[in-house]
Specification:
The structure holds 2 protein chains of 2 kinds.
Chain A (H helix, E strand, L loop, with lengths): L2 E15 L5 E15 L3 E5 L6 H8 L7 E6 L2 E2 L4 H7 E5 L11 H10 L5 H15 L14 H14 L4 E5 L7 H17 L4 E6 L2 H7 L2 E6 L2 E6 L1 H6 L5 E8 L5 H5 L7 E8 L6 E8 L5 H10 L3 E8 L3 H9 L9 E4 L3
Parallel strand pairs in A: 3-8, 3-9, 6-7, 7-8
Antiparallel strand pairs in A: 1-2, 1-4, 4-5, 9-10, 11-13, 11-14, 12-13, 12-15
Helix pairs in contact in A: 3-4, 3-5, 4-5
Chain B lengths: L1 H27 L3 H23 L5 H24 L1 H7 L2 H6 L5 H31 L8 H29 L3 H15 L11 H7 L3 H13 L10 H33 L8
Chain lengths: 342, 275
């Protein structure tokens, strides 16, 4: 079996409290079909509330699906969770697991024992991993004295201690500095390449991380998978188009006029982000069919009374793919206004 | 299959030892327990000692109270560290990690119980030694092996009750510390921490025997102050009762844990920290 993870029409609903005593169903996952091959780093890319973490919780046997099926390493997560647990591990970004009164090394040893790892092997692995992520100097520090970043490093090590076949990484570099994030991404790549049956399922907000690290990606929004392919194939979806990043200065009352840009010939998508309500400066992300549409865009802006203060034509990124598929940007969600075509 | 069973046993034993390690090593790094868990309970116990002395009660009642005071430590440990354990582990992010590991949940609770028993025995022992020296208590033990057996059976049943509560608190304990507080004082009364439980009346005392401490303390007191006659039931009956309670509560804990895990996974309560 070459697939490490298979989901079929996976659906998960939560009952959430609404006003009064009424409880409503919130659909976190809505018919997710996914196949993750062994030996690949597979990314789930999507905004907050897209269902990424819910999917990981189901695959790691912490939640049962409302309907549908999920198979991890050949074992059904609902009917055979124990077999799944033997081959998986999970790291969540920003988690605060562990016991503050114990040292870093003691905490990591504790979690290694949950997988039956012999003491000598566990301690060797712990020392090696602490060395890799630069935590060796904190080995004998009590966990309650660690900084957030150091704690995150400890959690990252914990995920690798059991040398799992399938590792779930939920925002693994959240809160880490640039250099540590780079080291961690490099280690993930080397770890997967080190043995062909190792698989990583990774969720992230960071486009660059997804682009650099993932062999394949699924773009998730509102519990649905919108696209699934290699990062380069996804980018080719908007590859024939031009992506324009335009900074404009316009009066607040003209913002609505700017969204009319999406109706122009050759304009496929427009996203407008502002610093806040009533702001004078706005950032426009515009996907156009080709360079021929650029003069029309600039002419439209001039007609709206907007002054172009910055203009950049870029190569398509995953952010643009997201914009193309969802109709808004993944990053800078606050203050965004979206204009759809058609 | 045989290898699988061996691996299963090994991983669960290792998990239990690791969880016990947190309790034992962790607690020993905070020496405040000497004040909070030995000296403060001694003050509470001393109050009853002086009441009995003021009433000219038999001097054995002092030791009687001291035993009750020592057993308080176990009840506190069961309530605050066993019953609330999964609830607090969830708040601290550890519960998810225990639940995705290939181990029995009973292994984690057993580790917690072993660590808790070990540390609490040191505290309870300190209290008895210190109290005996301070108040000049003398014991007339009729059978040391029977005292040990009764004590062990009491702890097994008591921590079995803690394991059972653990899954209930996880599901229903929105505020675990409130539930613990709620159970604290009534149990002091119903189990006869500071008086012979027979004083509650036979039927109430029998009903209160569902709490293992009731029978356990009564049996230990009968064995340690063998010349007094205040027991609720004959010692051998109470020991048998403790055995039944131990097996029953451990079995119930296993079943409850399985059911609660299933329900919690369905409702998302293993992962939602605010519930």
């Amino acid at each position: 079996m070459s697939e490490a993870i298979i989901t079929e029409q996976l659906r998960r609903e939560f009952r959430v409290d609404k006003e009064g005593k009424r409880r409503e169903a919130f659909v976190a996952l809505d018919g997710v079909d996914l196949e993750v091959n062994r030996g690949e780093i597979f990314g789930l890319l999507g905004p907050n509330g897209a269902g990424k973490t819910t999917l990981i919780k189901i695959l790691s046997t912490l939640l049962t699906p409302t309907s549908g099926r999920a198979v991890v390493g050949g074992f059904d997560v609902t009917s055979d969770p124990y077999s799944v647990r033997r081959i998986i591990n999970m790291v969540s970004g920003g988690e605060h697991s562990g016991y503050g009164i114990l040292t870093v090394r003691e905490n990591l040893w504790l979690f290694s024992q949950l997988y039956g790892i012999p003491n000598r092997v566990a301690l060797e692995r712990i020392d090696r991993l602490m060395d890799i992520v630069g935590l060796s100097d904190r080995a004998r520090t009590k966990v309650h004295k660690l900084s957030t970043g150091q704690r995150q490093k400890m959690n990252f090590i914990r995920g690798f201690i059991s040398d799992p076949e399938i590792l779930f990484l939920d925002e693994p570099t959240l809160g880490l500095d640039v250099e540590t994030s780079r080291v961690i991404r490099k280690y993930i790549r080397e770890w997967v390449d080190g043995r062909p049956d190792r698989t990583v399922l990774l969720t992230t907000h960071y486009m660059a991380e997804a682009d650099q690290l993932c062999d394949r990606l699924a773009i998730v929004n509102q519990g649905r998978i919108l696209a699934c392919d290699t990062p380069s194939a996804l980018k080719r979806r908007v590859g024939q188009d031009s992506v324009l990043e335009i900074d404009v200065s316009a009066q607040a009352g003209r913002l609505q006029d700017l969204s009319g840009l999406s109706a122009k010939r050759g304009v496929r998508r427009v996203a407008i982000s502002s610093d806040g309500q009533g702001a004078l400066t706005h950032k426009l992300s515009v996907i156009v069919d080709g360079d021929g549409a650029i003069p029309g865009v600039l002419e439209f802006l001039a007609q709206c009374g907007a002054i172009v203060t910055g203009f950049k034509k870029t190569e398509p990124t995953l952010e643009d793919v997201f914009l193309e598929l969802v109709g808004r940007r993944l990053t800078g969600e606050n203050g965004s206004q979206v204009a759809h075509k058609g | 299959m045989k290898t699988d069973l061996k691996w299963h046993i090994r991983v669960n034993v290792k998990a239990a030892i690791a969880r016990a390690y947190v309790r034992v090593v962790g607690t020993n790094r905070e020496f405040s327990w000497i004040f909070f868990d030995t000296l403060l309970p001694l003050l509470g116990t001393a109050a009853y000692v002086y009441i009995y002395r003021a009433m000219d009660a038999p001097e054995e009642y002092v030791g009687f109270v001291l035993l009750g005071g020592a057993m308080t430590a176990y009840w506190m440990n069961v309530l605050w560290n066993m019953a609330s354990n999964f609830y607090f582990e969830r708040q601290g992010w550890n519960l998810e990690l225990y639940f995705i590991a290939p181990i029995s949940r009973m292994a984690i609770l057993a580790g917690m119980a072993i660590g808790g028993m070990f540390m609490t025995t040191i505290r309870a022992g300190s209290l008895i030694v210190l109290g005996s020296l301070l108040f000049n208590v003398s014991f007339s033990v009729s059978s040391v092996p029977l005292v040990v057996l009764t004590f062990v059976l009491t702890l097994v049943a008591l921590y079995g009750l803690g394991m059972l509560f653990s899954s209930l608190f996880l599901m229903y304990g929105r505020e675990a510390w409130h539930t613990s507080n709620l159970l604290q004082e009534p149990v002091y009364l119903l189990t006869g921490f500071y008086f012979p439980v027979r004083a509650l009346g036979f039927y109430i005392a029998i009903a209160a025997s569902i709490i293992p401490l009731t029978l356990g303390m009564d049996a230990v007191r009968q064995l340690v102050f063998s010349h007094l006659h205040f027991g609720l039931l004959p010692v051998h009956v109470e020991i048998a009762g403790l055995g039944v309670l131990g097996v029953g509560l451990l079995y119930a804990a296993g079943v409850a844990l399985e059911r609660m895990e299933r329900a919690a996974k369905k409702e998302g309560r293993l992962t939602l920290r605010w519930q």
